[in-house]
Specification:
Shape of chain A: globular
Helix content of chain A: under 10%
Order of helices and strands of chain B: EEEEEEEEEEE
Largest sheet of chain A: 6 strands, mixed
Strand content of chain A: over 45%
Distance between the termini of chain A: 41 Å
Structural class of chain B: mainly beta
Number of strands of chain B: 11
Largest interface: A-B, 22 and 27 residues
Oligomer: heterodimer
Strand content of chain B: over 45%
Chain lengths: 113, 114
């Protein structure tokens, strides 16, 4: 079956540091890939997505590129802020109706001032 | 994107009781989903709820424990029955629909069972 693996956290960075959170996946076919963010005490928010190989999703300074050859979708940001402290979930879906979502275990990011 | 609200936002309940969680969407959607997020963990799908049909439960979840209603295209409820401390989790409602591919999530209901 489909699966998503993320780098284990927690990740602690200083403000303005560079962020990478690794995500790799296993899936049959060509899934859509997502990054969701969960701020403390809140639900999940879609951060960015990519629906085909070589697509780059971007939002709020975060980027991730759909790499089919390495089955990866790593999340990056050039300069993190304290407000980026949250849990980040990588996910995939192989369905056009928003079904069959598989979430990674989540990576907790703490950004220190 | 859809705007989703859940009630209650949090609750503390006694073991053996039941709690019904409501999920309201600001637009008509085909697919609604209920997830459980245990403390410090990822999301686990409980069931998929389509309007006009019985909910489809994932392995490990049964209708007697987690009955779901989906009376129309904007509303659903999840009941957590005969609760035990192991049911203490965040319960999340989400929606999906044709085309967008993604799921949109509600703010969650934080349940503590004593």
């Amino acid at each position: 079956g489909n699966s998503v693996t993320q780098m284990e956290g927690p990740v602690t960075l200083s403000e303005e540091a560079f962020l990478t959170i690794n995500c790799t996946y296993t899936a049959t076919g060509y899934p859509s890939l997502f990054w969701y963010v969960q701020y403390p005490g809140e639900g999940l928010q879609l951060l960015l997505k990519a629906t085909k190989a070589d697509d780059k999703g971007s939002n709020k300074g975060f980027e991730a590129t759909y790499r089919k050859e390495t089955t990866s979708f790593h999340l990056e940001k050039g300069s993190v802020q304290v407000s980026d402290s949250a849990v980040y979930f990588c996910a995939l879906s192989d369905d056009n109706y928003g079904q069959n979502f598989v979430f990674g275990p989540g990576t907790r990011l703490s950004v220190l001032p | 994107s859809a705007v989703i609200s859940q009630k209650p936002s949090r609750d503390i309940c006694q073991r053996g009781t039941s709690l019904t969680i409501q999920c309201q969407v600001d637009s008509q959607v085909t697919m609604m989903f209920w997830y459980r997020q245990q403390p410090g963990q990822s999301l686990t799908l409980i069931a998929t709820a389509n309007q006009g049909s019985e909910a489809t439960y994932e392995s490990g979840f049964v209708i007697d424990k987690f009955p779901i209603s989906r009376p129309n295209l904007t509303f659903s409820t999840l009941t957590v029955s005969n609760m035990s401390p192991e049911d203490s989790s965040i319960y999340l409602c989400s929606v999906g629909d044709r085309g967008p591919h993604e799921q949109f999530f509600g703010p969650g209901t934080r349940l503590t069972v004593l």
